[in-house]
């Protein structure tokens, strides 16, 4: 049938729509041109007919390895690494974006921010793109996106928590101990994903020197993140402000009063005398790496 005849027929019958005519064209040209006609029809109907080139089709599209860790916790001052793994990357670029302000931190292995603490780590041939953040701050907490420059872009979100780690000395902030008994202080590091690499003990402003006086024992356990300071047969001269200071954590202190006899007055007198006669040259650094495994 000729289309013009149909149109005439449609016009005279005043019943059918123009789309029926298109359908007829398709039916009449049921060969290679059918698809084109269908596309034209779709366009006429406002349907987009984006033809996806074969290299952009799903089988060769980049995709994220969903098995990687997506949430990280670190302590203030530590270095954080966010690992993004992209398969089938091809020649596209991987960027790291800070979600909070949509700041582009890195593109490929280039850093795009003035904050040089951010860095992209990548080994040629690997599919891992790591965002490295040195000396993490609490303000670095938040979401970071690993983004691939496909059209449209694909991204994977990573959450970073930067926590302030604190030390705590178990018991009262002030201890009264009778002369001759032991000073036994236990320090625990709280809110830290990693064990501290060391824990220092101070009395006053100085690291405790255990060669200055016998009977001092320190046991630091990495696994339990604790350190125990034991000073046996305490004398009033051992009184003072004891501080436990782990690496990458806020310190904790306790005031220790060693009582000579029973009266607090005597204790205070002794403490004053001790502070007045303390020989600072006798204080050394010690115990940093005493670890029990
Ligand atoms: C990875 O996860 C995203 C979102 O959860 C999903 O859309 C995508 O299909 C997943 N990819 C694979 C390879 O499993
Ligand atoms: C020190 O105190 C802890 C508990 O805080 C206790 O387990 C430990 O046995 C004590 N050590 C000594 C030598 O008293
Ligand atoms: C004990 O020492 C620490 C660290 O030097 C200090 O922050 C704290 O204020 C001191 N405590 C007292 C009661 O002096
Ligand atoms: C620690 O004490 C010992 C013994 O009193 C002393 O010989 C040494 O010099 C002291 N070390 C420091 C660094 O003060």
From TrEMBL:
The keyword Signal applies. The keyword Signal applies. GO terms for biological process: synapse organization. Residues 1-21 form the signal peptide. One of its GO terms (cellular component) is neuron projection membrane. Keywords: Membrane, Signal, Transmembrane, Transmembrane helix. Gene3D superfamilies: Immunoglobulins (2.60.40.10). Pfam families: Ig_3, V-set. SMART domains: IG, IGc2, IGv. The chain crosses the membrane at residues 273-292. InterPro entries: Ig-like_dom, Ig-like_dom_sf, Ig-like_fold, Ig_sub, Ig_sub2, Ig_V-set, Zig-8. Residues 62-149, 152-255 form the Ig-like domain. This is Ig-like domain-containing protein. It comes from Dendroctonus ponderosae (Mountain pine beetle).
């Amino acid at each position: 049938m000729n289309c013009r005849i149909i149109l005439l027929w449609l016009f005279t019958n005043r019943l059918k729509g123009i789309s029926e005519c298109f359908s007829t064209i398709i039916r009449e040209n049921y060969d290679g041109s059918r698809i084109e006609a269908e596309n034209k029809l779709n366009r006429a109907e406002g349907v987009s007919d984006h033809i996806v080139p074969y290299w952009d089709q799903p089988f060769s599209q980049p995709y994220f390895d969903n098995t990687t860790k997506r949430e990280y916790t670190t302590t203030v001052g530590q270095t954080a690494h966010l690992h993004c793994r992209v398969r089938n990357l091809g020649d596209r670029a991987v960027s790291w974006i800070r979600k909070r302000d949509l700041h582009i931190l890195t593109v490929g292995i280039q850093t795009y921010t003035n904050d040089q603490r951010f860095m992209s780590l990548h080994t040629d041939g690997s599919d891992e793109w790591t965002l490295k953040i040195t000396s993490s701050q609490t303000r670095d907490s938040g979401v970071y996106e690993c983004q691939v420059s496909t059209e449209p872009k694909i991204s994977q979100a990573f959450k970073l928590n930067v926590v302030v780690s604190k030390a705590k000395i178990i018991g009262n902030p002030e201890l009264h101990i009778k002369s001759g008994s032991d000073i036994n202080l236990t320090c625990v590091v709280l809110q830290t994903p990693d064990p501290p690499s060391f824990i220092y003990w101070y009395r006053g402003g100085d690291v405790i020197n255990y060669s200055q006086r016998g009977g001092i024992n320190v046991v630091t356990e990495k696994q339990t993140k604790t350190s125990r300071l034991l000073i046996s047969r305490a004398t009033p001269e051992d009184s003072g402000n004891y501080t436990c200071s782990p690496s990458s954590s806020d310190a904790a202190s306790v005031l220790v009063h060693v009582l000579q006899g029973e009266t607090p007055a005597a204790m205070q007198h002794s403490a004053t005398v001790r502070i007045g006669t303390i020989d600072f040259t006798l204080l050394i650094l010690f115990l940093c790496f005493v670890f029990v495994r």
